[in-house]
Specification:
Elements (H helix, E strand, L loop, with lengths): L15 H17 L4 H18 L7 E4 L10 H9 L3 E8 L2 E6 L4 E3 L5 E3 L10 E4 L3 E2 L5 E2 L5 H8 L4 E5 L20 E3 L4 E3 L5
Parallel strand pairs: 1-2, 1-6, 6-9, 9-10
Antiparallel strand pairs: 2-3, 4-5, 7-8, 10-11
Helix pairs in contact: 2-3
């Protein structure tokens, strides 16, 4: 069975959080086994840059993008290309349980999980675009994250920011269990395709 055809059977006793937990465990294992990551990251980067240009990038210059960790789709090459194209790049830093968009630069610290966090100036306004990490996503933009809720709260705070999921193509599945508190993505960009989602903010 391929991941793209993956379906999870629900029962009256299986709540949303329980189903999310099961899918997270599966997708973490699946992503860890992924091969040719550098090639796929390069293809996804080109797809994303093309999407931004077609989507009116001339007026969308502030891009908030995650700093890749572990088996996530790598963003270092993407960040370099964004800077070359003249975008203002910001990356996440956690402070007192809140995710902040911080100017990308040369200075970093490491979180308790070993994730790089920039030490630049904080963007106290909505970015134009948020490049979002995920474990799985469906075609409607329902995103399965890591369970901390940081991006959902950030999207709630800055609803005008365009939300783009950046992932390997196999991370797209048929259905993501979700609640009304889960914020959907506007688009999904992978190493193989770009999907526009019918997102209601």
């Amino acid at each position: 069975m391929t991941t793209n055809n993956l379906r999870f059977v629900t029962t009256p006793h299986s709540g949303v959080e329980e189903r999310k937990k099961g899918l997270r465990a599966y997708m973490k294992g699946r992503r860890a086994e992924n091969e040719n990551r550098d090639v796929k990251a390069s293809l996804a980067t080109e797809n994303l840059l093309e999407f931004l240009k077609k989507d009116g990038a001339g007026t969308k210059r502030k891009v908030f993008v995650y700093l890749s960790f572990s088996s996530e789709l790598a963003t270092d090459g993407l960040i370099e290309r964004l800077q070359e194209e003249g975008y203002e790049v910001y990356c996440p830093r956690l402070e007192k349980g809140e995710m902040l968009a911080v100017e990308y630069g040369k200075d970093f610290t490491l979180s308790k999980l070993g994730i790089r966090e920039p030490l630049g100036e904080i963007l106290n306004a909505a970015p134009d675009v948020v490049i979002t990490p995920l474990l799985a996503v469906d075609n409607e933009g329902n995103r399965l994250g890591y369970g901390g809720g940081y991006y959902d709260r950030y999207f709630e705070k800055y609803p005008t920011a365009k939300r783009i999921g950046f992932c390997f193509d196999f991370q797209i599945v048929n259905t993501i269990p979700h609640t009304q508190e889960d914020k959907r993505l506007d688009a999904i960009v992978t190493d193989k395709q770009t999907i526009l989602c019918a997102c209601e903010k």
